[in-house]
Design goal:
This protein is mainly alpha-helical. The protein has a domain at about 30-74. Helix content is about 90%, strand content about 0%. The chain has helices spanning about 1-45, 55-70. Helix 1 packs antiparallel against helix 2. It is rod-shaped and about 65 Å long.
Length: about 70
Amino acid sequence: MPKLLQLSRVIDRLNEWMGRLIYWLVLGMVLLGTWNVAGRYLGRLLGQNLTSNGLIETQWYLLTLFFCGEQLTR
């Protein structure tokens, strides 16, 4: 029984770590998405390109990591 309790604690720590990682991934994704939208419209007003395809791709990669991480914690 102590072995199962120890395994349960390891799984709980792993789930907590994954939850915190997913929290930061989602926060980064939202901030990056906000910048992409604001930068697009602000850039039009200023006549400069303030966003790039690389930033949009990074947002998609963060979204993918979020969904992969979420599936691991289920």
